[in-house]
Amino acid sequence: MVKTITYLHVYAISDCASRGVLRLGNLEFTCLLGRTGRVFRKREGDGKSPRGKWEITELFFRPNRIRGLKSAKPLKPEDGWCDTPNHPRYNCKVKLPFAAGHEKLWREDDAYDILGNTSHNQRPRIRGAGSAIFFHLWREGAIETEGCIALKRRDMLVVLSLIRGRAYLVI
User: Which domains does the chain have, with CATH numbers?
Assistant: First the structure.
């Protein structure tokens, strides 16, 4: 059996560190990157998107806002992500309430209505090397991310419909 792999190539637009283009085959989509561009050695809180090849390991959706997303898991209001470097659950999904620093995945805005977790800093997890690098929606009014890659909802749905098998962001 042949395993299908889809590569989503992300390029920065030279005149703006936080704007980019995501290419999938012959298609191109405008995307957002980290507020301070891209970097090979990501650090927690630096606002940069990590350069490299990162598998989209899990896909989540907010069930009260998105319907019919195949192979995605529903988010729950108690879902969070640990971003405290010295915590044993650093760069892992956690259940809220959670005493250490964390990000809420069930947000008021629509950024995480569709959320892909990436393999960045997963195996091994290195303390301080960056957490919560996601592939998510471009929220209304945003001009940058904290290091993630964001697409407009309509574009994300097109991209997800074209992915077969494993998918990688190549930043």
Answer: 5-170 (2.40.440.10)
